[in-house]
Amino acid sequence: MKARQILLPAILLFAVGTLNAQVATAPVVDTVKNKLDAKGRRQGFWKRIDQNGQTIFQGTFKDDKPIGKFEYFDDQGRIMTISHFAPDSKTCRSTHYDANGKKQGEGKYVNTGPGKWAKDSVWRFYNPLGKLVSEDNYVKGLMDGVSKVYFPEIAKVMRERNYKAGKVNGLSTEYFIDGTKKSQTNYVNDKMDGKATWYYPDGRPSVMGIYKNDFKEGTWIYYNQDGSEKFRQVYINGKLQGEEKLITPQEMQKQKQQYDQQQQQNPDGPNLPGGGY
Hints:
This protein is mainly beta.
């Protein structure tokens, strides 16, 4: 079945992104008498259907503004969005559903201009099993505040980061499934900038370094799981300048034993050709 092109009032335009309702290309027709007042404003209960008799949306208007509950459907009659509008029609609470009737997302929209709606405040998103997968904060359509991504099977935080005016700013922290810290980096306007650390599951650091304007900068240190240093790398503007392999305590002890053994075998020093030193 082909998707229909909706010719709807501007109020449905806020159904954006991955949560958009599927619609059909069949022309939209009115088969119910929707009321307009003397000024041409929509009044009372309105229902819009296509030429096949399928409802596109239904809800109540007052002075051309939506109030109360509105429902939006796809071309097979499945509910895709349910919205509840405030009495002043400036905000609404919406829940979006997938084709199987499972909740995909829920949150608040604010009216930002004629026909313009934007996410605002806390929004929650779910997987097809109904498990919470993320929770974001918005201000007039831009992410602003704490954003959390969850391990859906246990509803624990997998990643937590901060946004300002739609861009990542501040700390971004990832976690192992048991809640221990996996990594921590810092962002400035969507770019990594500042100290960055990755951890082993026991909490010991595995990698430490500095980012500058999204590039590795300076000395980066890599650690073994026992806490000893493995090696170091030096970066300038993201380009590797060199690598310094460190001697582990075990290797140092082995070299010392080899030196002691050589000294015992030749206590007078190396026997160079021609004699002497």
